[in-house]
């Protein structure tokens, strides 16, 4: 509507659902396994959800994409999660779903005024990583919009980026 084109692609990411093994006590709200690149957390009583860290390029049309999880994707997630939690080896799979990420070229969000349109601000392109930081970014972008002082410099997330911006680490970041 504003006539601004943003470099955001929509990519599909699978999440697998399992019945929770009786022997498993998830320690805390989430088990985030950097070595095996997988996370596991409760999905309602008696169920767990699991997915890989990061993303793999799987560009789709956000208005029409396959929301299911294939057998190969299921096997991939289970192989990783059972390396951390052996009790997951035989627990029944109860399906899953695919959702979408708003990917930018470097995996970083676009935050701040974009283009020459007075009053047009962006806070988007979080590339599958925008939930945790949302309250802080919301507070700081609100301060910037209302010309108040903000303790955090959001300029690294301006678009276009500065030439020395580095991409967000890829899925192998823990091993490097
Ligand atoms: C499967 C999955 C797992 C994730 N896990 C994590 C995680 O562990 N940690 C993390 O930090 N991030 C995670 N994320 C990413 C995080 O959820 C997103 O980065 C974040 O929700 C993006 O926030 P947003 O406000 O930009 O967009 P959204 O949360 O999508 O909010 C946009 C809102 O705008 C509304 N809207 C759209 N169009 C219109 C319109 N025309 N008029 C009015 N309203 C409209 C939508 O209904 C929606 O409510 C995950 C994402 C997915 C898909």
Outline of the structure:
With 176 residues, the chain is of the alpha+beta class.
Q: Quick check: average pLDDT?
A: 89
Helix/strand-derived category reads alpha+beta
Return Rg in Å: 19 Å
Small molecules bound: flavin-adenine dinucleotide
End-to-end Cα distance, whole Å, is 42 Å
Write down how many β-strands occur, each being a DSSP E stretch of 2 or more residues: 7
Estimate percent helicity: 10-25%
Please give the count of helices. Answer: 2
Spatial order of the strands in the main sheet?
A: 2-3-4-1-5
**Stretches where pLDDT falls below 50 for ≥5 residues?**
none
Shape: elongated
Largest sheet: 5 strands, antiparallel
Tally of separate domains? 2
Proportion of beta-strand residues: 25-35%
Order of helices and strands: EEEEHEEEH
